[in-house]
Amino acid sequence: MRVSVVITLKKDVLDPQGKVIHQTLNGMGFDNIDEVRQGKYFEIEIKENDKKKAEEKVENMCKKLLVNLVIEDYKIIGSQ
Amino acid sequence: MNSSVITFPGSNCDRDMEVALKKFGFKNKMVWHNDAELPKSDLVVLPGGFSYGDYLRCGSMASKSKIMKSVINFAKGGGKVMGICNGFQILVESGLLPGVLLRNKYLEFICKNIFVKVNNQDNLYFKNIKKNTLKLHIAHNEGNYFCSKDQIKEIDDNNLIALFYSDEFGNINEENNPNGSVKNIAGIFNKEKNILGMMPHPERMIDPTLSGEDGSVFFTNLINNLR
């Protein structure tokens, strides 16, 4: 089963890279942008056919390594 | 006094640290990250560099390496552990120190001499230190110290800030904050003050002809305090 996870910076954490990307997009003529936040995306292939079990395992991986909970949030966005 | 410097794949200040420790009287051993056991040590140092290529988050992979289990046990038993630069990042990622080190505010790799003010002398690292303001060197991309509101309260309540970025007279202000760190924090302790993490490199300031001597002030004082 493939589990997809998105990791983003928490709302109150400064994202200087996102800010620069925002400014650059503005400079290119893409206006009306309120904010850009940069994040990470993982696809994890796991030998587990039960969706619930697979997601539990990935959640554990997030808490133990993939995510720093001081600054980041994670969301499992799909399993197939 | 016995010290151990841990070498991770990608560490690059490990040998400089050994040179500094030996110069001021430590008997040092280099320890490979894949070893399980720490040699008998009065001080363990996690050196600067780019362990595991800074993959995922700086210090995150190194914090899970084999030797870190022993380092964490050693630290939790009251052993002295000092992390410099990437070593500081490894200490926060392993949960031994609060907070996290983010990308520098202006997205630049900063490599320059700076001044830090010693905040706190009630610990073995800075007790009786002869200078309150030290000229040290920083070289980092992720030195922007950040922590949650609860953690900042814990830091304030227990006086855990070790060093502030300052000017040469010890004035702490935004102008002398090179990387955007909360409260100009350059280094912090754990509650028991046996663990120190800091971004500046004292090992680069131990030779008057090449650099400066404020690192010598730090190491001389440290070994005297440990004896």
How many distinct folded domains of chain A?
1
- How much of the sequence of chain A is in beta strands? 25-35%
Secondary structure tally, helices of chain A: 2
Biggest interface: chains and residue counts?
A-B, 10 and 18 residues
Helical coverage of chain A, percent range: 25-40%
- What overall form of chain B do the CA principal axes indicate? globular
* CATH-defined topology of chain A: Mth169, Chain: A
How are strands sequenced across the largest beta sheet of chain A? 2-1-3
Shape field of chain A: elongated
Span from first to last CA of chain B? Answer: 7 Å
Give, in order, the helices and strands of chain B.
EHEEHEHEEEEHEEEH
What's the story with the biggest beta sheet of chain A? 3 strands, antiparallel
What layout of secondary structure does this protein have?
The complex is a heterodimer of chains A (80) and B (227).
Chain A lengths: L1 E8 L6 H12 L11 E7 L5 H16 L5 E8 L1
Antiparallel strand pairs in A: 1-2, 1-3
Chain B lengths: L1 E6 L6 H10 L3 E6 L10 E4 L19 H11 L3 E5 L1 H8 L6 E3 L7 E9 L14 E8 L3 E3 L2 H9 L3 E6 L18 E5 L5 E4 L15 H13 L1
